[in-house]
Each structure stands twice: as C-alpha cells, then as structure tokens.
Design goal:
Strand content: 5-15%
CATH topology: Rossmann fold
Low-confidence stretches: none
Number of domains: 1
Length: 130
C-alpha cells in the first residue's frame, strides 16, 4: 500500500490534490519573507527556474519584484493548466508540465538560478538556519 508521502513523486497524487484544493498554497514562507535572500543571490536579469512550483504565489511575487523571466515547472498537469490560465496575461511567468528528474527540455546553463522553494522553506525553518 502506498502512503501519502510515498505518493509525492507521482503525478496522480498532485493532480488529485490540485483538483480538490485549487486555491493558492505556499508551504511555509511567502515571497515577501524570502525576498531579501532571493534578491541577494538571484540577479533580476537572469532567467530563473522554479521547480515544483505548485500553485504558490511565489513566482508572481518575483515578477512583481522586478524579475523578468520566471519559468515554473511541476509534475501536475492539473496545476500547470490552472496556472497557465491564471497568468495568461503575464508573459514574464511561464508554466510547463515537467518531471524534474528529466530536464532534457532545457539546454545546459539555461537559467541563472534554480529555486526549489520547498527545500528553501525547510532550511529556513530548521533550528540550524543561519
């Protein structure tokens, strides 16, 4: 039997979740909280890849803060379609269905930065965060 955490790597799990919970969701921190760190390490003129974007407003916050090219990928076709529809009038935000275990759609060094917000969130809320 598959537990819910074992299913996190499966597209059907996320398709089901985003079908049942379509509202925006940020796991721990919102963009404004993380902006000082992002601004320190990610130049605004670089293309940025956000992996496992879900339906977070994180990338919207980046674009509102002056980032000009934010590409978002997620394994869920349900969430990608929803985000493409939501941001169809925001050309700086791009959404693609993709499994991050296969990034062959992108050439090497296509992005100046790659952000995994879930990992960043986890690090910043740990007792060892500096």
């Amino acid at each position: 039997m598959t537990t819910s955490t074992q299913a996190y790597g499966e597209p059907w799990y996320w398709d089901n979740r985003y079908s049942n919970e379509p509202g925006p969701f940020d796991w721990y921190q919102k963009y404004l909280t993380l902006a000082p760190i992002i601004n320190l390490y990610v130049p605004r003129h670089h293309s940025t890849l956000v992996v496992g974007c879900g339906n977070s407003a994180f990338s919207e916050g980046m674009v509102d803060d002056g980032y000009s090219d934010v590409v978002n990928v997620d394994i869920s076709s349900v969430v990608i379609e929803a985000m493409q529809n939501k941001y169809k009038d925001r050309p700086h935000l791009k959404y693609m269905k993709m499994d991050v275990r296969d990034m062959s759609a992108f050439e090497s060094e296509s992005f100046g930065a790659v952000i995994d917000k879930g990992t960043l969130d986890s690090i910043l809320v740990s007792d060892d965060a500096h």
